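C-alpha cells as discussed.
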C-alpha cells in the first residue's frame, strides 16, 4: 500500500531531509584527493548525530557504516574504508537519516579535483535525469511516467540506467512502497496522489546497464567496469509542483 502523508508527517520528513542536505554539502566540501572514504563517513556520521538524527543506513540489514560511498564503477552501496581518493575519480555519497521516527534519503556524485569532459557530461546527465523524474511527480500522473522520463534523458544522452536497483517510497520506514524503477513506459503504474513521499534515484552508467554485487555482498559495480553516477532526492507529490524535501 502506498501511504499518503499528512502535512505534519511531511514536515517531519522535511526536518530529516534538512539534515541529509546539510550532510551532502559537508561531503562536497571535504571530498578531495587523499581523504579516505572512512574519514568522509566519520565526518558525516558526526554531523548527523550532532543534529540529533540517526544514520539510517548503519545497521540496516547489517550494513556497517553511516553512508554508502561508491567510487567510479561502483554504482551503489559501497562500504567506507581505508581507500583514499585520487584526482579524476567520481564519488557517489548516499545518506539516509531518521529523525523522530521519520526518514529522508538523498545522494549525489562528486568529482575529485579535475575530471575530463566525458565524465562531466555523465554527471550532468545523471542530474538532468533526476530533475526530469521529479518534474513528472505530479498528482494525476502515473508512477511510471517518472521512470520513463528518467530513462528518456539518460538513454537520450547515450547512457544506460541500472535496472536491478530502484527508487522507493519513504516515510516511517527507510524503504516503503512503491518501488520506482528508472525505466518504464509512460501511462503505467498507480496514479500519483498528493501526500505520496518518494525517493527517486537514477543510477546512470556510461556503458551497459548490467551490474553485479561484489564479494562483500554490498558493493554494486557495473559489469563492464565503466563509470556510474547516482543522484537522489526525497520528494512529496502535492496539488501542484512536487516539493523536494532534501534541500535547504
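Sequence:
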Amino acid at each position: 500500500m502506498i501511504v499518503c502523508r499528512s502535512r505534519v508527517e511531511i514536515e517531519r520528513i522535511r526536518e530529516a531531509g534538512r539534515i541529509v542536505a546539510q550532510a551532502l554539502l559537508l561531503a562536497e566540501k571535504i571530498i578531495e584527493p587523499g581523504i579516505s572514504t572512512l574519514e568522509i563517513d566519520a565526518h558525516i556520521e558526526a554531523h548527523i548525530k550532532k543534529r540529533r538524527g540517526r544514520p539510517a543506513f548503519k545497521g540496516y540489514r547489517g550494513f556497517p557504516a553511516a553512508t554508502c560511498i561508491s567510487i567510479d564503477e561502483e554504482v551503489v552501496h559501497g562500504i567506507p574504508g581505508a581507500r583514499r581518493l585520487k584526482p579524476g575519480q567520481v564519488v557517489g555519497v548516499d545518506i539516509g537519516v531518521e529523525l523522530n521516527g521519520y526518514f529522508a534519503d538523498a545522494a549525489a556524485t562528486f568529482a575529485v579535483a579535475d575530471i575530463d569532459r566525458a565524465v562531466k557530461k555523465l554527471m550532468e546527465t545523471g542530474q538532468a535525469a533526476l530533475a526530469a523524474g521529479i518534474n513528472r511527480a505530479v498528482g494525476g500522473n502515473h508512477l511510471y511516467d517518472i521512470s520513463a522520463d528518467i530513462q528518456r534523458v539518460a538513454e537520450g544522452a547515450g547512457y544506460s540506467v541500472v535496472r536491478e536497483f530502484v527508487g522507493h517510497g519513504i516515510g516511517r520506514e527507510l524503504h516503503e512502497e512503491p518501488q520506482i524503477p528508472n525505466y518504464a513506459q509512460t501511462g503505467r503504474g498507480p496514479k500519483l496522489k498528493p501526500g505520496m513521499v518518494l525517493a527517486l534515484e537514477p543510477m546512470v552508467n556510461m556503458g551497459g546497464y548490467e551490474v553485479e554485487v561484489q564479494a562483500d555482498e554490498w558493493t554494486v559495480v557495473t559489469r563492464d567496469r565503466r563509470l556510474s553516477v547516482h543522484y537522489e532526492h526525497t520528494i512529496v507529490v502535492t496539488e501542484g509542483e512536487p516539493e523536494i524535501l532534501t534541500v535547504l
